[in-house]
Write a structure and sequence with these properties.
heterodimer; A: mainly beta; eleven-stranded mixed beta sheet; globular; B: alpha/beta; Rossmann fold; six-stranded mixed beta sheet
Chain lengths: ~350, ~250
């Protein structure tokens, strides 16, 4: 299999979005800079990693995966490239595949089409970091994920964009019988605007989807982020959890669960924390039941940090800033999601900055 | 260790403490008693320095330093520790993490401390989330053991705790206060206690905790006035027999 290995974007930019150039604890790496693939290679038997264009040339069946989990959007035009990742039947690598979609030229419009296929009984973890050196630009990321019977896909996406970048990812997921799809999305630098509404279709009995999002909006940022799950077969399960923190920016946290079959169970949870004046958190949880004997619930809460909690930690010797940072980190529960260390430090930095500015 | 002089405190614009004088020497344990709403919790919250407890007159000295207007965390770092009566839930922070924070950079054996209070199974749960009354009390003590304060403020450590667990809490408090001292050659236990033991101010309603943690002195607080200071057992006897009405007679 041909391997591409050119000069990578700066290491610090990659590390910030969970992409490790040393490839420690990774089975493969894909990097697209602007419209060009600069790195593509995998070291695991039974896992394919190719650029989407190359995969279409090489494997005729890949064409069948184009625009199957999403409605075709001709207005987007031709895609430049993107990644194709496939875990063959029963393959369960220990480590993740990492990919980076990188904007380096000012004003660039990057347009990728990604496809991930997890065959029957296979398991795969994909980490995708999207980031930019450029301040201005547009990222259009179309992703289609297919989890076959009994397969499991864990997809972690980290966004860290330049101040004026606009992003419009489109994601569709089809999960078959007893398959599991888990999405962890972390965005602390949304640029000017992130708008996305990934949608999963649970088409086989016993399929499961879980979306977790951690959103932090600084002043000037708009995040319109939601997740949607159609529960189309019996005994399917879905959970959507979002944690939103506004440091002065605007967050619309959406969630939509559609129960179309009996005996499904789904829960939606949006929690928002407003830390500064001028911010906005708009939680829009939607439940749609279209069958009998289903169980769908939601809870939403928007508020500020409880003074009582800050003082409790201060009584244990933490300064007000330290206490606030600890509570916000706890609220975002970022430790659980495996946030890369540089990003974790940056989160603390943003929180501290916000405290000082609000004084 | 702690000296409170002519302390007046307002809560929500209303004066709750009307000129309190109290002296707690190093190594001593004092019990603070009084009916509900008399200002006991207000007094220790003010010593800890929380927002919302406004000192309008008087001074608080800790180890000779005027701490009346110091922020909470500086008092904590100087060596004051508080076991809350009803601590808040802090989601997303594991109890283990909080205990490590309490140690303020010192090495502590979290497992060992937790084991001493049958608390191991709670270490990886969110702070106070779904804890029963007794579990919260144990959690507070485990945190204080990591913090190692010189002055311990305990707000009703026995409330909501069954009798078996009061004994456990009592042992833990004694350990926390460094009162489990063994006799040594050439010096008296009394002398040792003065040197090593920590001080405590314990709010108690029932006095049950005093069966396990003997107090050197008792104070009675009624309507924001300290009406009586003396032998804690004598005070408890009087209150048990005649109620706080009898203590209120001393309020002039």
């Amino acid at each position: 299999m041909s391997e591409v290995k050119e000069t990578l974007p700066p290491e610090e930019d990659l590390l910030k979005v969970g992409v490790d150039p040393s490839e420690d604890g990774r089975i493969g790496t894909f990097v697209q800079e602007d419209d060009r693939v600069v790195s593509c290679g995998v070291r695991q038997e039974g896992v394919d990693l190719l650029s989407t264009r190359r995969a279409l040339e090489r494997f005729p069946e890949v064409r069948d995966y184009l625009w199957r989990a999403l409605e075709e959007d001709l207005a987007l035009g031709e895609f430049q490239d993107g990644y194709f990742i496939r875990a063959h039947r029963g393959v369960r690598p220990v480590f993740p595949v990492q990919s980076c979609l990188y904007l380096s030229r000012e004003g660039m419009r990057q347009h990728v089409h990604n496809i991930v296929v997890v065959e029957e009984g296979a398991e795969l973890h994909v980490i995708t970091g999207c980031t930019s050196r450029a301040r201005r630009g547009t990222h259009v990321g179309v992703s289609e994920f297919y989890v076959k019977r009994g397969g499991r896909l864990h997809f972690t996406m980290i966004h860290a964009w330049g101040d004026e970048v606009e992003t419009m990812p489109k994601t569709g997921v089809i999960v078959e019988e007893e398959g599991v799809f888990i999405s962890d999305y972390i965005c602390m630098h949304p640029g000017r605007k992130v708008k996305m509404y990934p949608t999963a279709y649970l088409v086989g009995p016993g399929a499961t989807a879980r979306f977790q999002s951690v959103l932090v909006a600084v002043p000037g940022a708009l995040m319109d982020v939601g997740s949607r799950v159609y529960l189309r077969a019996s005994n399917t399960r879905a959970e959507i959890v979002s944690r939103a923190v506004s440091m002065g920016g605007a967050i619309i946290a959406r969630g939509h669960l559609v129960g179309e079959s009996p005996h499904v169970k789904a829960h939606l949870e949006c929690r928002g924390l407003l830390l500064r004046e001028g911010g906005l958190i708009h939680a829009v949880p939607e439940l749609e039941g279209r069958a009998v004997e289903l169980e769908m619930t939601h809870e939403a809460a928007v508020g500020k940090i409880a003074r009582e909690e800050v003082e409790y930690l201060m009584a244990r010797g933490l300064t007000e800033d330290e206490a606030t940072a600890a509570i916000v980190r706890g609220f975002l529960n970022v430790d659980i999601m495996g946030l890369p260390q540089p990003l974790q430090e940056e989160l603390d930095h943003i929180i501290r900055q916000s405290d000082q500015e609000s004084l | 260790m702690l000296r409170i002089e002519r302390l007046k405190v307002e809560v929500g614009g209303k004066e709750v403490l009307h000129g309190i004088n109290l002296h707690l020497p190093k190594g001593e344990v004092h019990a603070l008693m009084g009916p509900n709403g008399s200002g006991k919790t207000t007094l220790i919250m003010t010593v800890m320095g929380f927002e919302g407890y406004k000192v309008t007159q008087g001074r608080i000295y800790f180890k000779g330093v005027d701490i009346t207007h110091l922020p909470v965390y500086e008092r904590a770092r100087m060596g004051i520790g508080l076991a809350f009566q009803r601590p808040p839930v802090v989601r997303g922070i594991k109890t283990r993490q909080l205990i490590e924070m309490c140690a303020m950079g010192r090495e502590v054996d979290v497992e060992e401390i937790a084991a001493a209070l049958n608390f191991t199974e709670f270490l990886d749960r969110d702070v106070n989330l779904g804890f029963s009354g007794g579990e919260m009390k144990r959690s507070e003590l485990v945190q204080l053991m990591a913090q190692e304060p010189e002055l311990v403020l305990l707000d009703e450590p026995e409330s909501g705790v069954d009798l078996v667990n009061i004994a456990l809490l009592g042992r833990a408090i004694n350990r926390l206060l460094g009162r489990e001292l063994e006799p040594q050659e050439g010096t008296s236990l009394k002398e040792l206690r003065k040197r090593y033991a920590r001080s405590a101010l314990i709010i108690t309603h029932t006095g049950h905790i005093l069966d396990y943690v003997p107090a050197d002195k008792g104070h009675v607080l009624i309507n924001g006035h300290l009406v009586c200071s003396g032998n804690p057992e004598e005070i408890l006897h009087t209150v048990e027999k005649y109620g706080y009405e009898e203590c209120a007679k001393c309020l002039r």
